């Protein structure tokens, strides 16, 4: 079933990349929108007043267990957009957004207990020397009291500012985040939005504990007001059912491929998958059970880019299992079954129409009727170059490819911390000129 284009792609030309599908698996929203910036937002972080004792109702206090990895993820996301909603629930921390050019949809989902843990918010106002470090293996689970009243808290965050505060973190550092989402503050915020009076946005406090020597850095930044009607996101419905080919490779390998092709200074990256449809003699000779292997063995992947009259191509095939740079190219189970079913059906029709004399000509022949088929899309080279920097975040990545649909890029996070995925829109046609205005 063909993809239908997203609505809301204003100011897009026919040569610009654009999504052709709808929805993320973990999202409950069915809207089809994008993030729009409110020019009236104050983007300067507010100065924080003293941290005297305060009520802890409505405060979210948590520790990030892998601060270096978290800082790298935030830095990567900040290259696509700035204002996002940080969505907090008892189980997850989620950032789900679309970039400013509406070409990249991404979702970061970190699991509570693995990637971060909630702490007693009263600890946030004590001396840092008395504040116990969170033990990741602790069996005690703390659920902030605010979740007794709501299932999810959404906080407006500027990723570029957050990325700046997280620079320079080391593995031995400890990272704590305090978010003020108390009812009084939220009511005041709403009241001041409807008036011309100045209002100091509620704060996000970031504390970094460093060692040798022991020292504490505290950063304060504003929560930004992102109204629901201003925050718009794209959804990709049933993407897994649309995927035809999956490519598992190391992030270092992908990074090297992008680095090699960057010498061309092309604006587009073309991904092409070639495979052969077996000839009728396979099914007629009783080789139906081997069709899956035959299809898989014929798979070839090409990365292409061009500039002016020059084109560069890198060909990738399945690696020998056990090597450091394993590359595994394969059809998804559903698409493989679809292909095999089509081959068997077509061959049955040929068998019924041809007669034994013609069929005997197929016996012993070397695939006289093999047909080469192609899955091909073009994507923004600049965007995929940014994603190739994820080699510092994950060792492996999964590319998910479908005809005329977005490119799925899924990274594995260590120790089951969560998921990190991107969807990159393809160009709409094969014109050689680019007018992305990216």
How would you describe what is shown here?
The protein is an alpha+beta fold and 438 residues long. The chain has two domains: 164 residues, DNA Polymerase III, subunit A, domain 2 (DNA Polymerase III, Chain A, domain 2); 186 residues, DNA Polymerase III, subunit A, domain 2 (DNA Polymerase III, Chain A, domain 2), CATH 3.10.150. Helix content is 21%, strand content 28%. It contains ten helices and 18 strands. The chain has a nine-stranded antiparallel sheet. It has a five-stranded antiparallel sheet with strand order 5-1-7-8-9, covered by helices on one side. Strand 12 and strand 13 form a beta hairpin. Helix 1 runs antiparallel to helix 2.
Task: Chart the SSEs and their pairings.
Layout: E1 59-64, H1 67-77, E2 83-88, E3 92-98, E4 104-111, E5 116-118, E6 153-158, H2 159-165, E7 174-180, H3 183-193, E8 203-210, E9 215-222, H4 239-242, E10 245-250, H5 251-261, E11 268-277, H6 280-284, H7 291-297, E12 300-307, E13 310-316, E14 327-331, H8 333-354, H9 356-362, E15 371-380, H10 381-387, E16 396-401, E17 407-412, E18 418-424
Antiparallel strand pairs: 1-5, 1-7, 2-3, 2-6, 3-4, 4-18, 7-8, 8-9, 10-14, 10-16, 11-12, 11-15, 12-13, 16-17, 17-18
Helix pairs in contact: 1-2
Name a few traits of the molecule.
single chain; 438 residues; alpha+beta; DNA Polymerase III, Chain A, domain 2; 2 domains; five-stranded antiparallel β-sheet; 10 helices; 21% helix; disordered N terminus; disordered C terminus; DNA binding; Pr_cel_nuc_antig; Checkpoint protein; DNA polymerase processivity factor activity; DNA_clamp_sf
